[in-house]
Amino acid sequence: xxxxxxxxxxxxxxxxxxxxxxxxxxxxxxxxxxxxxxxxxxxxxxxxxxxxxxxxxxxxxxxxxxxxxxxxxxxxxxxxxxxxxxxxxxxxxxxxxxxxxxxxxxxxxxxxxxxxxxxxxxxxxxxxxxxxxxxxxxxxxxxxxxxxxxxxxxxxxxxxxxxxxxxxxxxxxxxxxxxxxxxxxxxxxxxxxxxxxxxxxxxxxxxxxxxxxxxxxxxxxxxxxxxxxxxxxxxxxxxxxxxxxxxxxxxxxxxxxxxxxxxxxxxxxxxxxxxxxxxxxxxxxxxxxxxxxxxxxxxxxxxxxxxxxxxxxxxxxxxxxxxxxxxxxxxxxxxxxxxxxxxxxxxxxxxxxxxxxxxxxxxxxxxxxxxxxxxxxxxxxxxxxxxxxxxxxxxxxxx
Length: 399
Hints:
Blueprint: H1 2-8, H2 13-34, H3 36-55, H4 59-68, H5 73-100, H6 113-129, H7 133-141, H8 145-163, H9 165-169, H10 180-183, H11 187-213, H12 232-250, H13 257-270, H14 286-290, H15 297-315, H16 327-346, H17 351-360, H18 364-386
């Protein structure tokens, strides 16, 4: 019945046209600032937004469901996405990229107190806010008024953290990052090790679900490629393609939240706050404050995600912003956004840049982020229960 109702929804031509024009404008402005590479980045972002929306592919709900409902389909889809992305990124970093004449490098970053705390805060924030970094962008594009508030707070939290960068960067951490490709001697053994880790998480989620429910939940099926919905497997395949295209086009993994910090810093500077004097914005980051946001590949991709999700929502007949928010919705949106923004800067990124980007780089800091981010998500899920943000669970049948 639900699928029939989805099929009966009329395509919305006006928001679809606006989304298309917006994506074209972002691609054009990106081209003007950085040539074809940034124009292509905008289009890749548009594909990411449409894929995220049609597959409802979020890290937040998947982590909450495994903790609260003992359902792991979303978590297993994440493992599939990461493995598929690693299948190309590891060889590219292991020699394919150099052979093709394109410089490619992953993100191999240190692990320490600040990154652990940042990931933990992000995990709490994603549950209170109701979306992660990519989830915030695609739901904003999909027409969620509440997530506009989350995004604004996310931007504020991001630039706020850069004001304290000197303090956090002085806390204990490893001297350098750990790359599986270097530690294990190449892409093949590194990919085998990553497959073992991801497979263990996949299997553990299946065991938890079977013990709680007796069987795995039937996966959502793909309805329409253009109008959705998509199955989690199709969503994982599409997003793996986004990861590959980003790696080949930009020479590095997909990232999201550095763009938020840049937007916030530009707004703060326009308001007279001397962000250029903060240590975070010295060195190579100083140029970002002086250039257009359309010269920043991460920002261009982010704008593309919003436009792509808006187009997907309009194609599905579901773009319908509702500006009315309750006091609880507003408070949790602000709190969640601030925690995610602040935490992402401390943890070198979010679920995309630090978790997904770290793992597809073969860096152990991605595993470090996963452990602390998931712990924060567990706490955030408990907080949601205390705030009655989720409907009561139905009694489980005896297994």
